[in-house]
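Example with several molecule types.
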Amino acid sequence: MTAGPLTARQPEVGQIRRRGGWGWWVAAGVALLPALIPPVSLLFQVIGTGTTLAVPPGRLAELMLNTAMLTVAVTITAVTIGLATAWTTTRVALPFRKGWMTLAALPLVVPSYVAALSLIAATGPSGVIVESPTPYGFVGSWLVLSVFTAPLAHLTLIPGLRTIDPATEEAATGLGASRWRVFATVTLPQLKPALVSSGLLVGLYTLSDFGAVSLLRYDTFTRAIYTLYRGQIDRRPSATLSLILMALAIVILLVERRYRARVPLHSGRPRRERPLLSLSGWPRAASISALTLYIMLALGLPLAVMAVSVFRGLESEQIVGSLGAEAVRSLGVAIVAALVTVILAFPVAMVTTRRPGRLSGWVESAMWGAYSLPHITVGVAAVGFALASARSLYQTLIYLVIIYGAIFLPQAAGATQDSLVRASPELEDASRGLGRGPVATLMRVTLPLAWPGLVAGAALVFLSVMKELPATLLLRPNGFETLAIRIWSSTAEGFITRASAAGLVLLAVSIVPLFLVMSRELSD
Amino acid sequence: MSSATDRLAIRARDLTRSFGDAVALDHFSLDVWEGGVVTILGPSGCGKTTALRVIAGFENAGGSVEIHGRTVLAPGVFTRPERRRVGMVFQDYALFPHMTVAGNVAYGLPRGDRGPRVGEVLELVGLTGLEDRMPNELSGGQQQRVALARSLAPKPEVILLDEPFSNLDASLRDRVRRELRTILAEARTTAVFVTHDQEEALATSDIVAVMRDGRVLQADTPGHLYSNPADRWVAEFLGDADVLESVARDGRVDTAVGAFDTDLLGSVSVVVRPENVQISLGETPNAVVAGSEFFGHDQLVTLALHEGTRVRARIGPRPVYRVGQPARVRATDARIFARP
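Resulting structure tokens for the full complex:
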């Protein structure tokens, strides 16, 4: 979830157009097909059976208001937290500064339903820390989502801060401005593009979130979609809400597109290394304390709370349940999905790096579009599509894996692109010139070059599938429980111990692929 | 140049600073008199930009700095850059990209005073009418003048300029340099330039301080510096120079290009400048023409002396010599330095 349309790297400008080779285009088209199903399918589902609005306007307005309030509130707080962590870890001379920078990004790894579980376990009835009515509803959702989406802003603002010419801040200081004035009048305005990008990223994520708001019982679009889906035989109401939510997400994406196109790129003149700000006394202590508090809250608290819940549960002999089987299922489906996605992504990456142009631009947009849509809407669309046109696929593992591939394709493609872009197309020409045919070239030159990217892409997809909840809920075969579903349903039913145990297993299994991904992201 | 009634604008003493293992400043010392234009000249990496930044307060260092008699740097004393009242023009201009020209220029001014002063200083740099433009709409030369105007607006006591001409096209450089000199004279501001371009340093300054490896080797007027360099390195750095090795005895040293008086004894380096080298054809040749570069108003002829060393002569546009032509070369002036 660290790469995305808002942080994707474009292939190098100036790559030579390659000649011929429609095979790649066909492969790419096939790979993208599943990604194009959701919006089209939803449209059909909603429009197909009548023109009356399936959801009462009063309810619709209520959902709009709730969703809007949460999105705006979370965006403001998450970006503020992210700005604080980004600024402190890039500009201030702290011990283990780079370590803090990585740590502050780690909360991304915690799925929102695990975060919600931690909050409920910590503060609910029989809470670990405090026994009180849990902050369900708006407050809980706002809290959880702000803390756990702040890393999105953190990761976007770090390169933003690095792009600012340090000389402009020194010039302001030289002209007599105090530190606060420099920050407000010189740093922040130059940070505007990164701030807007982070805001949009956080907003999109909040809009799409299902896990936290459903467990914390705050009625946004996503929660309502699921409730209606489960509760009614007529799928039109949930499809209608899905369509609206999808439209909102698309609007945000288009705004981001527009905005990014208008901001001019900075010239990459090598600049003087900026000296880090040396603090002493209470500002230094305060910075370190604030960072520690944040990390504790975002990483330490969930781990601790889940561990304590498990211990307590074991004491009172609550059954931990069929954790092993669920873990195996999660791992199995995640590995298969990762492999399938990487295979699908390879032709897409070849097309976008070796044949850049307007058409490949469309390919990229389609891919990232599917990725950015809220997963619950994709799930509803996929269910509708299967029931209407491919009945035998409904509730099969094959279909689930295909939909995973459709959603997470850009993660694999983006990582593969990075590797391919670094390898010059001349290498493939050289291989052909030395007498090796296209297949041999593919096997002996192209694939080995793309390999690091493929591995990284597979790791990303693996992580994403392990964590995925809403689409899995809607598309899985009956009785197929993954760790994510176990955590979510146990929490909803109040079995905190079971949920915590599953949560710990999920986090444990995610660690190795996580390290792979994080070290790549932050090494730039 | 200075008298007892002139004040010192800047007094830097024994500035010392390292970045890790690299020594940037090694007991750097410099005096700058009020109203003067001083250029710190040195090759890349000699520490000149660091020296400037220490004076401005963007870097700390050992040693002391006084500005108009106020101690801003000393053991236990460090005045923050925003309080030093020293203007700075950065190599890349560092204009605030999100503010207009007027916004940039007004930045260092107190609230009430802005409008008239901005207009005044823009007129001074010749940019009246461009108040509402954004920095990315300006040419390089215009951006540089905005940077200058921005630093001059708050009427600083001293202004520091870090390689201000290096980002301009060669054709623009001379013109901008001359205009800048005029503007500074009119504003009566003390200025310290930093550059690696010796032509620029010699052309614009009252005093040039030649810097190498973190310390000042020699600080003098351009004319004096050029004709009386402190050592061989300075001589070669400041302009074209060719060196012949020889031995000095009995108050004289003999070389293929002539004999010169000297107080030194033993192995010496004899440094001659091309403008003091003459070529004649009528006498016994001691060299062969190896090549020439034609500049229109003069030419630089390279000659290979029979004894091996190459020497250059700067002469008028005529006569034109052929490669391979034998000639007699003599120098009318030289500087002698002891060989370590």
